[in-house]
Every structure is written in structure tokens, then in C-alpha cells.
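Example 3.2
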Amino acid sequence: AISIPSAGVDGAIHERDWYAPGGGESGYIAINSDDPNIVIASGPAGRRAYNDIMTHYDHRTGQKWNITVWPELYGWGAGAESLKYRFQWTFPIMFSQHDPDTLFVASNVLHRSNDLGASFDAVSPDLTRADPETLLPSGGPVTRDNTGAEVYATIFALAESPHEPGVLWAGSDDGLIHRSDDWGATWENVTPGPDLIGDWPLISIIEPSPHDPATVYVAATRYKHDDNRPYLLKTSDNGQSWTLITDGIPDDDFTRVIRADPRCRGLLFAGTETGLYVSFNDGGQWRRMGGNPSASLRTGIPVVPIHDLVVKDDSLVVATHGRSFWILDDLNPLRRYDPATDSGPLTLFEPAPKVRMRTYGRFSRWYEDDTNTEAVNFGRADTSLVSYKLDRDLPEGENPVFLDAGTNPPFGIVFQYLLDTEHQDGVTLRISDSDGKLVREIAATGNPGHNRAYWDLRYDGIPDVVDEFSSWSRPVGPLAVPGDYQAELIAGDHRATATASVAADPRVATSQDDLMAQQAFLFEIMATLDRTNQLINRLTLIRRQAAFWIERLDDAETLETAQRIRATIDETLPRLIDVNIHEAQLYPSGLHEKLNALFESVDSADYAPPQQAREVLAQLDAELVDIEEALQNDLGPQIAAFNERVVNEMAVAALELLG
């Protein structure tokens, strides 16, 4: 939540409104795993509220309950030496992973509540150095800048072992690390020596390994001591010994956070003052991710301080000190990347499984008609506008580039691949179902290095009608049903394959058989629509040819035949398509529009096709058969007779020319 002053009923801004239900613009947020409606959060709120304010928010009622650990109002002018408990501006709050009823909150001691904040017990001694020299009033009597952000000698980092109940880790902003095996009853000082971490570092993040109970990672900083070196440490024996793991990070890029991937052992991420780093060998070597100052908005994370990271399923969420979130939406390539083997001409990574979900109101293909890549565009006139630009150098799934809104990941499955050289003609991605039937063929970029291709989980569509009567396109077909699909990437003479899994939407009760029945019926509609479009295109071509001969024929009987052909087509086309689509809306729809509308009706949600839809398709198909038979009986002989007369006339003319 963000602290934004809001107006009361009288239009005035009231100080009590300066903190939102989820806390302020900074601080920790803890969500109860048993009841996600319960959110515990913190945030400084002004001189008339507690600096260590903490709220219990219930989303069901919208009520916000102040559960501050020690609700004695000191005001912003009080120094750290006068506080009963020293709380940092961003003090840790955490629900236990092993006991969702246990809430931990850290000041200079650890507090525990088993009743969601109705009471707290101090379960640790002071876990900081508590040097009196660091507790003096900040700035003295001249500046009096005791706003709470200057409170020192506090627990700045708190973590719980995901493996063992009761194992807790605490790190202070004055350089101490403690460990407890018994829910905080006793503590052991396991601080690394100054030869590794220097004097008085700020312990920023403690990250227990999700793979090994004895392994823990730590990120620390000493930039306030004019030391900008990175400090990342690892212990594999519960803090009895530590190793510095910063190889590959520049000496002037200090570190704020380290996180371990819960699914891939040895895959680590670190946030520094300037960007994001990744290690594939448990911290043995780090590589920078993005952070190119000249990179475009969508090609990499900018140069920015990164204060926290979290791995959620297959995504890496990055929180910056620029008040932004960035998301790397598929970690699978990093999880499967092997620097020793993934250096050939073509590497296709296994994509993350995708839940088959319908979305409504997404940006669709309408923006593809925009050609001005410099102009700022708006999708429509509306109360909720987003502005965007187009970047034609980016693949379809990454356009448009929003200027004042976040961007959701592309709908469907993202395929990521590496190319060692440029393929100017691009590469081809072929998706096939479990029976080997081609689902979709997608043109992808052939740039050297890392590339992405997108499959929107739909089958190929059908050809459109000619531009003269273009009304309703069907570039893609039905959604793929849940199951495994095979992807083949073709780059020149090189091929690579991967399996793409489409999972069922867990909220949808429709059976697999009904989804397959829906898909099969949509293919029936497309088949009838394809026959309609092909007939429209053939008639349009014949009409153009008849017009050509009408302007050039002298023979009256042949001219009359050509005019009859055009008249027959002019009478037939409105039954097939709205020939006045570009002029007005006051004309009836043809089979083209009716079949497209029927497709979208049946495709509107995940249900088996209704009976009335089947009846409508049967009627429309019968109408198309009637038109096809009538044309075969009427127009066919006319065209045959016309062609014969034109050929004869041309033969006679040729003989005359030859003398």
C-alpha cells in the first residue's frame, strides 16, 4: 500500500488518512497463509502516530486495527535513547511458515504474538550491539531530525527456516547475526568475522536455503561507512563458518538482497545498488542481468537500486528503490541453463506450463495497423486510458510498449531460445498436438543471443476474404485443450524440440470431453466459414474478370453473357457477405458475418456448444449448400458459354491478324 493523503467528507485532508489499510509507503507486509484476508503491515504515519505503527487489516470488513507492539506516542522529536523498543523505519514482520497463528515482529528484540496482535511477548534479549554512542539524539539540538528513520541498533533482517520449526535468524543494522533453535527462547551469536564482512555492517537480508537446512545466505552493506564493496555471504554449517560469495560483482556495486530459487538448487539472484545479478553455481560466480543504460523500456531492467526480490512459482519479482516492480515472467531458461552445454547453434528451453485461462478486454490486433512508431497512441476514448508506443523491432507479443501502465506477460506460452548467429530470414516455431497434427506455425525472430516466441494457445485460423469486402477476419482458431504439445524450432539447418504443457483452469468445472466437443464444433464452424470465404473470393475474382471483358468486348451476345454473369454475382454476394460494410451499417449480414458471430458466441467461454448453436450452424451450412448448388447450375453454364465464345472470338481475331 502507498501512503497518499485523501480528502475527508468536508474536503479537507485529515492526518488520520495518511496511512492506508496496508501500511505506509515503506515497510514489511505479512499475509496470513491460513486466511489471506488478514494482512499485517507497517508504515510511518506522521508525528501524531506511532513511528512503529502496525496495522491488522481484514479485507472482508475493510476494518483496520492498530496493533502496534508498544503504542506509546513519543512523537518524531524523540531520540532512540528514549524508546522502550527501538523499531527501524522498515522493521521486519513475519508469519511463521510452520504455525500460521504465530506472528513475529522485530525491534531491537523479537516480539511474538499468537492472537494476531492482541498481545505480544518479547522472546529474545537485545540482539544488537546497542552501543550508547549510536543511541544519541540524531543531529543534536540543532536539526532535531528524529523522524524515526534514524533509529539505530535494531533488528533489520529476520528469517525462519523453511525446513525446521523454531529455527530463526536475525540480523541487526549494526552488524550482528543471531540464530535460535527454539522459537527464540535462546540465541547464538553467529556473526562472521570482520575479515569477511568488515565492522558494523547493516545486515540487509537473511535467506535460508530452500534446499539445505544448514545453508543460509546473507546480503549486507557498508556504504554508510564509505565502503561500497558488495557483501554476500554463505554458510553451510548453520553459521559456524562463512564464505564470501561476490566473484563477478564489481567492487563498487554494494549488495542489498540475495534470494535462492526454491526449485533449482544453486540458482541465486542478488540485487545491488545498480541492478540484478544471477549465479548458476551457488554464488561461485555472478553475472549481470540487464541493467544497460541504453536499453529500451522492454529489453532490460534499468540501472536502479534493487532492495528486494521474491521468486513466485516461475517468476522473479523485483522491487526497486525507484518505486517500481519488475517481473521476469519465466525462470525456466535460467533453471535449465548450463553454460557448459548451452552454447551451440540453437538451444530451445522447455517453457513453463501455462494455465488455459480466458482473458477479456486485452489489447488485441487492432494496434497492428498503427504505423507511426514515434507517436503516442491511445487505444480509445475512455475513462481508463493508457498510452503506448509501438516498437517494430520487438516481436508481436511484446507490443505495444505502455508508457504509463504496467505490462502483463504475453497471453499464452513463451518459448525462449538461444541462437549463436543471426538468421536474417528468421526462424520458424511449429506447434503440434499429441497426434502430430499441426496446431500453429509461428514466425519468430532470428537475432543472435536470447530470443522469445509466443504461442497464444490457439490453432491456426483461415484465410480472410479479399480486401474489397473485408469485414471479419479469423486469423486464429479455437483454444487448445489442456494437454501436452510439441514445439519444434527451425533455424536454417538446425532444429530443436521442447514440450509445452497446457493446464486446465482450476476454476472451470467443464470436462475435458466438453472442451474437446467445443473445439471440434468450432472447427466445424471454421470449415463452413472457409468454404464461404473461398466462394466469396472466387466470385469476386470472376466479377473483376467480367468487368474487364465488358469494357473490351464488341460482340453483343458475348457482352450480354458477361453482364449476366456480373448480375448473378451481384445478386449472390450480399447473401454471402455484407458488401456495404465500408458504407453503412444499415444492411443485413451475410453468411460470412453470421458464421464469424457464431464462432465467437460458442468461443465466448469454456462450455460445450449449446444445442441452438448447432441448429444455427446446420441452417447456415444448408444456406451455403443452396448457394453453391444454385451457382453451379446457373453461373457454371454461363461462365462455360462465355469462355467458349471469348476463345472462339480470340481465335478468329488471331487468324485475321495472320492473314
